[in-house]
Each structure stands twice: as C-alpha cells, then as structure tokens.
Amino acid sequence: MNRKNILAPSILAADFKTLGSEVETVTKAGAGYLHIDVMDGVFVPSISFGMPVISSIRSVTDCVFDVHLMIVEPEKYIRDFAGCGADSITVHAESARHLQRAIHEIKEMGLRAGVALNPATPLCALDYVLPYLDMVLIMTVNPGYGGQAYIPEMTGKIRALRRKALDMGTDLDIEVDGGINDSTLEEVLAAGANVCVAGSAVFGGDRSANVKKMLNVMSRYTTYK
Ligand code: DX5
Ligand code: ZN
Fold first, then answer.
1. Taking 50 as the threshold, does the pLDDT of residue 213 lie above it?
2. What is the Å distance from ligand 2's center to 36 Cα?
3. What is the mean pLDDT of residues 50-68?
4. 51 pLDDT higher than 80
5. Per-residue confidence (pLDDT) for residue 225, from 0 to 100
C-alpha cells in the first residue's frame, strides 16, 4: 500500500478571466490533480462549464485532470470528456442509471474511474462496484456550489470507507470534496481521505502559499497504518 496524499484544487473557485495562469500557479506550487467540476443545472442547481473549457486548459499543464461530473445521464458524455483531456472521471451514484456500465466505459477509455456519493447516500451504494473503482469521492457538502461548510457527519463516513477498503485489501483513493480548508483538512486526513479537493481555500489570496500550506499539513499524514 503506497497511496499518496494529493491536493486537488477545484477550478470552480478560480478567476476564469485568467484561468490558464491560475492553473499554472497551483500546479507549479505542487497540486497533484486539478479538480474540474462540471455542473448541468439539472442534477445540481448551478451550471459551470463543459468540454471546450477543459480542452483549452489541457494545453497549459500535464497535471492529472480529475473530472467530477455533476450531471444527469453521465454515460452519454464519457467519450467526450475523455476526448477533451480527462485523466479520471467521477460519476455520481445518484445520477448514473447504469452505474456499473458507466464505470466500465470509463475504464475502457483507459481512464481512472471514480464514483461520488452525496452526503445522504449510504456507502452500501458501492457494494457491487467497489472492486472496479480507482477512487470514491465522498461529498462533504451537497454538490452544486463552492464555499459551503463541511458536513461533520461525513467524517464517520470517510472512516468507515477507509476501514472497508483496508479490509478488502484495496488500495483505494478516497477523495473528499466540499468545505475542505485549514480547519477541516486534518480531520479528513485522520479519517482516511487521501485526495483532498479545495476550491475557495486555494483560490483566495495567495494561491501558491495556500497550496504549499495545505501540502505541508498533508505530508504529516499517512493514510495507511
Ligand atoms: C461542489 C464542488 C466542489 C467545490 C468545492 O459541488 O463539487 O468541488 O468546488 O469548493 P469548496 O472547496 O469551496 O467547498
Ligand atoms: Zn467537485
């Protein structure tokens, strides 16, 4: 087991008029993934951006593009997101009608596959798909907006999933998304998360300093003991 702790800045909170340089700044500062939130205004209340934006920043960095699809019928778009530069695609258990098929389509495209669970969705939603997954995304807020407060009950959910993965002998990435900042980062790491998404905590003030500060905290935690 040698899973690394990774910081994944969410570009939803970036300044879009200078998106290319925002991406360069956080990746040069050491962010391992770039978290890319796609919202359709149907599965979640807000609309963000889609394929053309992702294609355009693909030329700026080799960083892993961690695409989080908050859309209905994600199966329809897996090929398109692979084509515009996604390295990892995460679909919601609540929106993929044929979740097992969606996961296989992502893997067939040669990408890493993730499943996201809303705060109210129990871990048993993963029961028959966990062995196929590279990553599980535990939503620590209700998806739809950046800048919301961490839901404290999610700490136990992260811990339970890490225990389950260890019991299965699975080297699973557990990603957390929503309300991750200086006050909550250590709590999720201690519970067993190893991929930490941060939007407003990174893209406010000195981006580079924010990334380095969070990475410094993350370096003190080892997920597997
Ligand atoms: C929420 C998105 C998040 C969001 C996180 O629906 O999935 O990735 O950008 O933003 P913060 O870190 O500000 O809570
Ligand atoms: Zn997200």
1. yes
2. 7
3. 97
4. yes
5. 47
Q: In what order do the strands lie in the sheet with 88-92?
A: 6-9, 195-198, 173-177, 135-139, 112-117, 88-92, 64-70, 33-39
Candidates 66, 134, 173, 177; catalytic one: 177
Of 164, 195, 161, 177, the residue nearest 87 (C-alpha) = 195
Mean model confidence pLDDT for the chain: 96
Say what the pLDDT of residue 155 is: 98
**CA separation for the pair 125, 61 (Å, rounded):** 34
Let me know if 87 is a catalytic residue: no
Angle 138-133-145 (CA atoms, 0-180°, nearest 5)? 30
- How many A from CA of 144 to the centre of ligand 1? 8
Q: Annotated catalytic, 37?
A: yes
> Is residue 83 within a helix (H) or strand (E), and if so which, with residue range?
helix 78-83
Supply the pLDDT for residue 55.
98
Atom 10 in ligand 1: which residue has the minimum CA distance? 146
- Closest atom of ligand 1 to 181 CA is 12
Average pLDDT over residues 96-111: 98
Q: How much is the pTM? A: 0.97
Q: From the CB of 200, is ligand 1 less than 6 Å away? A: yes
CA of 169 to the centre of ligand 2 (A): 27
Q: Which of 37, 40, 134, 173 is catalytic?
A: 37
